[in-house]
Design brief:
The structure holds 2 protein chains of 2 kinds. Chain A contains no helices and 12 strands. Chain A is mainly beta. In chain A, strands 2, 4, 5, 6, 9, 10, 11 and 12 form an 8-stranded mixed beta sheet that branches. In chain A, strands 1-3-8-7 form a 4-stranded antiparallel beta sheet, with no helix packed on it. In chain A, a hairpin with a 5-residue loop joins strand 5 and strand 6. The relative contact order of chain A is 0.32. By secondary structure, chain B is mostly beta strands. In chain B, about 0% of the residues lie in helices and about 55% in strands. Chain B starts with 8 loop residues before the first strand and ends with a strand. Classes of the chains: A mainly beta, B mainly beta.
């Protein structure tokens, strides 16, 4: 149980293009989803928190117009990197917190990550 | 906000018990503690979560002293496949708002 998928697992794009990453909770309803980025040999950096049906909350220093997040359903959140540039190249990971027996577990379950390379 | 501090790296040998400690001196009353394992180019995998005292599951134990200013992840009888980075997370939730403080990670290397 508590499986989270991400698609695509790897993407290479040209500078200036937009890239969409999908995050799905496969066997539970995700009340809250988180988006992280991770640079090599560094810890996870929280970018934003999204709750189903409401606007995402972005961490300080994260441009909301560049990193568009949509959490339209209890099983799907998307992150769109708009006008991507080489400095946006990173490992992007989503996580989801869901309901177990009607009570939030407060445990994040992570997707496998998406490697974005911007040329 | 609680700040989490954990060792940068640790070495051990197959079959040994490994204990990784995370310090979180400013932990708040509602904060819970979670540990994750991460392999290169993969998302973190949940190991264990606790609030106080001791929690045990099929893969690990989590020890939290009464003052909750630290927590120790205990991995029994490690194997080579336990070589990974281990993260400590201190988090809390109020309504739908989360406060999450991640440690920098401990790189654990298991030797034969």
């Amino acid at each position: 149980g508590a499986v989270v998928s991400q698609h695509p697992s790897r993407v290479i794009c040209k500078s200036g293009t937009s890239v969409k990453i999908e995050c799905r909770s496969l066997d539970f309803q995700a009340t809250t989803m988180f988006w992280y980025r991770q640079f090599p040999k560094q810890s996870l950096m929280l970018m934003a928190t999204s709750n189903e049906g409401s606007k995402a909350t972005y961490e300080q220093g994260v441009e909301k117009d560049k990193f568009l997040i949509n959490h339209a359903s209890l099983t799907l959140s998307t992150l769109t990197v708009t006008s991507a540039h080489p400095e946006d190249s990173s490992f992007y990971i989503c996580s989801a917190i869901g309901l177990a027996g009607g009570v939030s577990t407060d445990t994040q379950y992570f997707g496998p990550g998406t490697r974005l390379t911007v040329l | 906000l609680a700040k989490t501090t954990q060792p940068v790296s640790m070495d051990s040998y197959e079959g040994q018990e490994v204990n990784i400690t995370c310090s979180h001196n400013n932990i708040a009353t509602n904060d819970y503690i979670t540990w994750y394992q991460q392999f290169p180019s993969q998302g973190p995998r949940f190991i264990i979560q606790g609030y106080k005292t001791k929690v045990t599951n099929e893969v690990a134990s989590l020890f939290i002293p009464a003052d909750r200013k630290s927590s120790t992840l205990s991995l029994p009888r490690v194997s080579l496949s336990d070589t990974a980075v281990y993260y400590c997370l201190v988090g809390s939730r109020m309504d739908s708002n989360y406060q999450l403080i991640w440690g920098a990670g401990t790189k654990l290397i298991i030797k034969p």
